[in-house]
Automatic annotation (TrEMBL):
Record family assignment: Belongs to the multicopper oxidase family.
Name under which the protein is recorded: Laccase
Biological process (GO), any one: lignin catabolic process
Signal peptide: 1-27
Isomerase found in the keyword field: no
InterPro entries for the chain: Cu-oxidase-like_N (IPR011707), Cu-oxidase_2nd (IPR001117), Cu-oxidase_C (IPR011706), Cu-oxidase_fam (IPR045087), Cu_oxidase_CS (IPR033138), Cu_oxidase_Cu_BS (IPR002355), Cupredoxin (IPR008972), CuRO_1_LCC (IPR034288)
Subcellular location: Secreted, Extracellular space, Apoplast
Substrates-to-products reaction catalysed: 4 hydroquinone + O2 = 4 benzosemiquinone + 2 H2O
GO cellular component, as recorded: apoplast
Boundaries of every Plastocyanin-like domain copy: 36-149, 162-313, 435-560
């Protein structure tokens, strides 16, 4: 009897242990409701109706842990088509939830809904979500905070508090009208009127002192700032007066900590930094400033500065959380607007943690090599037409390997999955420029680009090396390239034209930084490696929205592998229709 009782008890304990372990490893279900709706917002003394999620600007933060299943029901109450991209989420075998309109899904039409479901696998840190159709991400965006699994610490001292910092861009005009007009005229779009920190333009803009982001801190504490650049068209420098920043994570991947006065962050990128406050009350307040980095011609970008304020609690005040408004305000010094050498030195310092727990699994052998030029170009005007492009008979365009990508009218992933790709896309995207030229030298006389909907097809598991080469056509600019569905390792970068002999020898294959968005240097190149271990169709594009509109985008098709866990799952029943 006693033996039977003990056996039953031990079996029950075993079952409980098994259930507990399954619960711990499989993660929780995190459910969110996103109601896309018009909301009246006032900035710069001007009110307008903007597209928001749940009436919030920026939108709500999605919180999850590594291993969790995230379920977001998006209901579209606005007159625009909508889709949401979960920027940086790997979407392993769940490409239907990736979000770019006409790539992995048809958009959610007005009055319709779609449920995005994805599991966060092997990722922890800061990512973000945003609209992925036209320019609607100007106001439709928010943070994704992924905590480690329960009981797993950060590989750095735990902060006392964590704060999201989202940079954005604000137009007084309707951004859909801004890009629509630019595409009609062939010229550059009107630039934004302000940058924002967490939706607020701050005291350096007209009529905006009351709309200032304030980070309220206590002495002797450590704060982790989860910094996200959600601006449409501008890379940004960021600094806080009197407070060095220790970078511990970029694009939701831990790095070897480095301490800097200023960070550089492109649209699409995230950077987690530790800010340690002064040991005692300093008797001052401090500006945090963000301003653009650009080598483009003056007038083609927003050359303004956004300010937030770092405020210390005043211990001498009778109120426990009081702040003295009459203190001196100290300002940081940012690099010059076109300080490309600063950018190169900064990005060159970023290194993967590359430990046993967080290894840098860099592909050492390469199965497929690609060389893509990225940059601007032109389209001719319509017959007898006048345009506002580089010349009055041309329109601005942008391309990868001289192919300006044309969005299809049905989703690429659906066309692939159903075997109906004829007339939707062709699988012959060029692996290298068809006509080589001096990419960073004097531009060729003919700068016209071709149009097409072309994909690169990769077998499952292939190790890929891609060299992204900037060009000087219409001026040398930096291009932040984002690859959906993958992280990649930045194994090399440099200025001028890529040299496959000399530059290859200088690759870092030990601890290169791992990212999902990388800046192609102005008049330079960057080399990345990744493993094609995620079946589906994956968008790759510049994250400057104006360049996306002009065609600086393409897509990769990764075929199914042989094993069941190497195949794309079937589409959900509520996948939107075109």
């Amino acid at each position: 009897m006693a033996t039977s009782y003990l056996l039953r008890c031990s079996s029950l304990v075993a079952v409980l242990v098994l259930l507990f372990s399954i619960g711990m490893t499989e993660g929780a279900i995190r459910e969110y409701q996103f109601d896309v709706q018009m909301t009246n917002v006032t900035r710069l003394c001007s009110s307008k109706s903007i597209v928001t999620v749940n009436g919030q600007f920026p939108g709500p933060t999605v919180f999850a842990r590594e291993g969790d299943l995230v379920v977001v029901r998006v209901v579209n109450h606005v007159p625009y088509n909508m889709s949401i991209h979960w920027h940086g989420i790997r979407q392993l075998r769940s490409g239907w939830a990736d979000g770019p309109a006409y790539i992995t899904q048809c958009p959610i039409q007005s009055g319709q809904s779609y449920v995005y479901k994805f599991t966060i696998t092997g990722q922890r840190g800061t990512l973000w979500w945003h609209a992925h159709i036209s320019w609607l991400r100007a106001t439709v965006y928010g943070a994704i905070v992924i905590l480690p699994k329960p009981g797993v610490p950060y590989p750095f001292p735990a902060p006392d508090k964590e704060v999201p910092i989202m940079f954005g861009e604000w137009w007084t005009a309707d951004t859909e009208a801004v890009i629509s007009q630019a595409l009609q005229t062939g010229g550059g779009p009107n630039v934004s009127d302000a940058f924002t920190i967490n939706g607020l333009p701050g005291p350096l803009y007209n009529c905006s002192a009351k709309d200032t982001f304030k980070l309220k801190v206590q002495p002797g504490k450590t704060y982790m700032l989860r910094i996200i650049n959600a601006a449409l068209n501008d890379e940004l420098f960021f600094s806080i007066a009197g407070h060095p920043l220790t970078i511990v994570d970029v694009d939701a991947v831990y790095i070897k900590p480095i301490t800097v006065e200023t960070i550089l962050i492109t649209p699409g990128q995230t950077t987690n930094v530790l800010l340690t406050t002064k040991p005692s009350y300093p008797g001052a307040t401090y500006y945090m400033l963000a301003a653009p980095y650009s080598t483009a011609r003056s007038g083609t970008f927003d050359n303004t500065t956004v300010a937030g304020i770092l405020e210390y609690e005043d211990p001498a005040s009778p109120s426990p959380a009081a702040f003295n408004k009459n203190l001196p305000v100290l300002k940081p010094t940012l690099p010059q607007i076109n300080d490309t050498s600063f950018v190169a030195n900064y990005t060159g310092k970023l290194r993967s943690l590359a430990t046993a727990e967080y290894p840098a699994d860099v592909p050492r052998e390469v199965d497929r090599r690609f060389f893509f030029t990225v940059g601007l170009g032109t389209h001719p005007c319509a017959v007898n037409g006048t345009c506002q492009g580089p010349t009055n008979d041309t329109r601005f365009a942008a391309s990868v390997n001289n192919v300006s990508f044309v969005l299809p009218t049905t989703a690429l992933l659906q066309a692939h999955f159903t075997g109906r790709s004829n007339g939707v896309y062709s699988p012959n995207f060029p692996a290298a420029p068809l006509v080589p030229f001096n990419y960073t030298g004097t531009p060729p006389n003919n700068t016209n680009v071709s149009n097409g909907t072309k994909l690169v097809v990769l077998p499952y598991g292939a190790s890929v090396e891609l060299v992204l080469q900037g060009t000087s056509i219409q001026g040398a600019e930096s291009h932040p390239l984002h690859l959906h569905g993958f992280n990649f390792f930045v194994v090399g970068q440099g200025f001028g034209n890529f040299d496959p002999v000399k530059d290859l020898a200088r690759y870092n294959l030990v601890d290169p930084v791992e990212r999902n968005t990388v800046g192609v240097p102005a008049a330079g190149w960057v080399a990345i490696r990744f493993r094609a271990d995620n079946p589906g169709v994956w968008f790759m594009h510049c994250h400057l929205e104006v360049h996306v509109s002009w065609g600086l985008k393409m897509a990769w098709l990764v075929l199914d592998g042989d094993r069941p866990n190497e195949k794309l799952l079937p589409p959900p029943s509520d996948l939107p229709k075109c």
